[in-house]
Amino acid sequence: MIEEDTRSAHLVSRAHASAEAPTVIAIEPPPNGLDRGLSWKGGAASPAAVEKSKNYDVTSAPDVSLPLDPLLTHGVFENGCQFYVRPCSKPSNSCELRLCVRVGSLCEEEHERGVAHFVEHMGFKGTKSFGHGELISYLSSLGMQYGSCLNAHTNQDETVYKLSVPLPPRVPAATATAIAADEARVLAEEERKGRLSMAINVLNEWATGMRISDEDVQTERRVIQEEWRGKNGASRRILHKYWDAVFAKGGANLIAERFPIGLPEVFMNCDPQVIRDFYRKWYRPELMAVVVVGDIDRLEQEHVLEAIRSTFAVIPGDLTDAGTPSNGIDNGPRPLAPLPTVELPRHPHDLVLVLEDAELTQTSVSLEFFEKLTVANTLTHVRSDVVKRLFTTLVDQRLGAISRRCDGNKAGPFLGAGIACRPVVPDLNCTTLNAICKDDPQSIAHALQALVEECTRAAEHGFTPSELTMAKLKWKSAFSLQLAQEPNSMDVVEDARQHFMRDHATPFAGHTAELGACLELTDDVTLFEVNEYCKRFSVITWGNNGYIDGAEDGPGTDMGACGAAQKKTDTIVTATAAVPDDPHRFRQLTLQHPISEGVGGAIEGSWSEERLRLLLDEALDKVRSSLPTPWADLGIKESLMASPPPPGRVVSVTHLPKLQATEVELSNGIVVAFQRSSRRKEHVAFQGFALGGSSELNELEETAFCMIDEVAGLSGLGELDGDALANLTSTWQTRVNTQRHTYHRGIGGSCPAARLELLLQLLHLRLTPGAQHFKAGSLAKVISLQLEGIKHRDKMPDFHFGEHARISAYGDVPIMRPISPEALEQVSVEDLSRLYTAAFPADATSFTFTFVGELPDDEVLLPLLETYLGSLGATPLPPAAPLAPAGASSLDDAGPESTSAPTHSPPKPFAPRSALSSSATIPFCGVCSIAEVGSCGCCPDPVSSGTNGAADGAVQGARKGGTLLGLSECPDAGASGGASGVHQNFAANTDKPPSPSPWAKTPGRISFVPTPLNAVFSPGKDVVYAGRHTEDAKATCLLAWRVDMPTATDPDADTTLEMRIKAMCVSLETRLLSVLRTENSQVYNVSVGWGRTSLNSFGMINIGYGCDPERTDEVESLLKAELERFKTDGPIVEEVDAVKSILAERHQLALDNNSYWIFYLLDAYKAFCAHEICVVGGGGSGGGSKGPSCGGGGPRADDGGGETTRAGKVELAAAGHSVDRIALHIDPLTPEVIKATAQEVLPIEGSLSLTLLPEPAMTGAKAEVADDQNEAKSDLGAVTGALNAQYIPPIPIHITPTQARGARLAPGAACKISTGASRYVAAERGPGGLL
After folding, report:
1. Torsion sign, CA atoms 416, 419, 422, 425
2. At what angle do helices 1154-1172 and 1133-1151 cross, to 10 degrees?
């Protein structure tokens, strides 16, 4: 696999390497009692040394090298091979191993382009001990899933082989009182050591014993071709253009040309001997390091060290070439070749670059500042890194404020902006200011002008003391939270890899020491330091690089006595900081935007570099003639409320001992369940829900509802405007966000444990009538962002494919359609305010909450809950105001600073409930609420599944595994898939009288009854034609099955079936990878996943893959044949044991994650609510709807468990999916059970098969086919819809009614996380994380 390094693609320039030569040391750890202290290399340290390392005097000896992590054992064998071994208890019962080889595509000759990556692939085809495909089969049998636990990547300067080894749990010594228990403990210890030895042997065979046979090479060519094909597209084309401008034209040809994937003419035709020669030439011990980090005790650590010594210390080194055997397996002499010298680019003048592509969907303007990157293992370097972090935060704060700025009803100069500072290649750093704007000349000019002004403002005036204080608070909070957590094995492994690749120049002092130093240094950094650093990014001198060094002074520059410079212009004199002499410093203005093809193939909307340069000159002339004024300071707030509201009271407290949780009921009816946990220290997160979601809305209401949280965040809350709110939440790392789902509304957030009261204040105001504001300008910004995406989405092949999949899987459900410009034009702030009030403040007491984290004692916690949650609902809503005249709510009438809140604006009437549909399915993060669990970074997915986000992964296993209930589908429920068009709904919204809230309870009901969808699944086979037909074109293929879940009468059957389906998906994916990739070389990746939305009565099984467009029928035939074999024969016992091991490991990781416990509890309460509707209230509303099913509720107390209380039922249900999950649902899995499940849920005649192919060439009969497809595409546009209007990954595609509109809001939020230079790294991540 070619993979993007999570930090950077470290390209070490040999010309600048400065680390001392490796030292030969003994690998044995020091004997007991020997304090080796903080020696630079070797051995674990004593407890005293560990304690000593926790604190550094950051003001003394700043240039002294930091010592190594005292828990690390690091050494170098005589042959040059290095090793890193460190115990790390998180995650438990798991160990990460790496073989790092300092060889990548930069080592290739012209005839070898792509061979380094080819060698990586060959490591998984066969070695000395494993024949063709046997290695993958063997490791899979141990529960190591291909892709997530068994992987590799190749970059320009390195190849890294990866193993994640599950270890059997230890048997506690306290239980070893009987002989049997003692034997069990010994057996567990031996098995753990055996797995560690096995893994180290596999690393050794990759290092020295690859079987690079002619047959293996031939079969792997097409796999690499499919990997190459799968990565082609707009991103690849843009990357090549960028790389050519920055590197090739700057003289860095080696970097510019050596993309790791290589050239098709090389990897498809090269002689196998070329690959064997490359392997022998470069896989040398002095270029290798072995890394082992995991949950290992002292004895296991000694065992690992001995295993490494016995396998890697004996590899011959420093030998000369003695010929290469034809079979490729040889430990004899090998040629010695120096690593290549890598030249960095040099540009005498600043650059202007235009990147255009027909498939781009977004326009952005970037100012990029390049400079040589140096690293050092000193406090001076750490301090400079802290200064950079503070600087980027300060700039980001200002850009965020400008993004929120409104000019009346119009958005500000750009739709979103951010800053990034990271290596574009390891020795070349790039600081990027990036702004996203509309795709028209005026908007591009405004965005560029704003960036130039802010660079100039910061360079000329610097930042204010309170701005720096705010930035310091943010970073201190982040460092403190990280410091409180235990280090993760993956993080330590990454530190070791960087330490090796950088010749020991990067700090590796350990979690405690490094973060402790960062905390102290953050306090110590001065405003003068930051402002001086900021001057490096002045744009006043644009043209001759504008950087002042002692070698080349630009025209009109006078050097002062202290090295500072005064740059003379026509009207102003600006101060510029002195910077080191760096021939690699240059600046670049980059415009990235979409173009389109007009009549006759003419390009429309294209920009020339000269035109962009003139635009830059105009912007520079403005700031040179009139400098921007200093920044206006906003100050810092620590609280939202001057005084707390009158509290409610706690009416009951019930302990849930099996869950180590407590349920509290408040006097207003709100129920809160909380669990104190130290899994994530000094952190608290929560989630709340109320039944009733998007299925109650029509298309216009859903369009408005999906923008509520984004617009609310921009508009402000309570007494705070958008800027003050953003500063408050980001400074104190505290946030609360509302969420929308198909059958329920959600609200969630997180905070440091010390900021719990601020979190509750945010929650209280979010649920208080009149506190939430909606500004017309904020809405205009969000709408503008949506319209930009809509304008370009038709050019995306994946959009059309997703549309076809949505309609085939669900029918034309109105609220699942993608947002249309017509709908956006009719949304007003009154619409948002009205819907928000009905969804949240007006129904606040219907919410149930779960809190998990380091919560205070009851004496503190319960009064806080009484004050901020118990007081909700005490103030009645104001009476409804008269209807506004038609058209009065348009944006044009809202005024220059129009703000809407429920108490200030007359509500518009709700449209009739006649056009209902679905939306949410992706599992939202309980912390940030805007992304899938694991994709946002605030609650990372604890596993990486080969299903690449499929519902079969651990997230779905925890959140959807049985506790999420089913709403019975009913044709007469009033939810017609296409009964009412969008314009009909708009008319209804203004012509009908006011109607109750969409989520108002029916009189006599104890809870709201959600309206089920009328989703229609249409099996069959179809082909979608979209995209250009080129030689590198690709096909995307999808097979899907709908599975209806058991009814409300048997909740345990729902849970059992879902677990069986997940086990089947894991087993089947392994089978299909073996058949389609290993045996037939037809695909690069295939994913099998299960998806089910919360409270849904059915789910979807999806199989996705990509292949050669000419081979789609052949691949599908192979796949279906293997499906039939699987259904006939089933998996073997060993395969099922591996599946159970994988599922158990995922579940154990989930138990160590607070986010999963939040949803274990929350889903149990959903089960209770739905169960009460079934048992007490009967089903549904008018029209005979069956109402919600209780499926997935887990063990039911009143069905034989003996419990009848809410708390008792919730405890049993949640325990069934947490502490009892393995025994209840995983242990009973057998080959016969999985085979029977496949026969039940995978009928060939009931499958949906879709294939995305490029449009045929426009000649002859093919032109007629293309015309037919264009007509079909036009019809598809009439119903308008997609799974994701911004981007649908080609592999894999899973059919779920995703929050298309919510997902389309994500780019607006993502602007705060700048893309910047990171968009243009040479290494690329493969789909599914496969090889």
Report:
1. positive
2. 100
Residue 166's closest CA among 1068, 1070, 1148? 1148
25 phi and psi, to 5 degrees? Answer: -135, 165
Contact 985, 814 (CB under 8 A): yes
Residue 31, token pair as written in the block: 């004997």
Distance in angstroms (rounded) separating the CA atoms of residues 515 and 614? 46
CB 918 within 8 A of CB 695: yes
Identify the residue with better confidence: 205 or 1198.
Answer: 205
CA distance 146 to 1088: 13
pLDDT in tens, 585-603: 999 999 999 988 755 566 7
Name residues whose C-beta falls within 8 Å of residue 193's C-beta, 6 or more positions apart in sequence.
300, 303
Give Cα separations from 1058 to 135, 672, 686, 1055, 1317 (angstroms).
Answer: 31, 28, 26, 5, 43
Closest CA to 572 of 504, 636, 624, 528: 624
CA–CA gap between residue 965 and residue 1092 (Å, rounded):
10
Taking only the tens place, the pLDDT of each residue in 28-66 is 333 333 232 222 333 344 444 434 444 445 555 567 789
**Under 8 Å between Cβ of 333 and 281:** no
Which tokens sit at 736?
Answer: 């609360």
State whether residue 1267 is helix, strand or coil: helix
Are the beta carbons of 158 and 96 closer than 8 angstroms? no
Largest CA distance in the chain: 94
Locate 681 and state its tokens: 């220290």
Mean pLDDT, the chain, rounded, equals 77
d(CA 1161, CA 660): 11
What is the spatial distance between Cα 767 and Cα 1227, in angstroms, rounded to a whole number? 43
Distance, in Å, from the CA atom of 1299 to the CA atom of 263, rounded to the nearest integer, reads 39
pLDDT tens-digit readout, 769-804? 999 999 999 999 999 989 988 988 888 888 999 999
Look up residue 746 and give its DSSP letter: E
Q: Is 80 exceeded by the pLDDT of residue 1153?
A: yes
**Omega within 30 of 0 (cis) for the link into 1292:** yes
Cβ neighbours of 663 (radius 10 Å)? 24
722-731 and 465-484 helices cross at what angle (nearest 10)? Answer: 40
What distance lies between CA 684 and its chain's CA centroid?
21
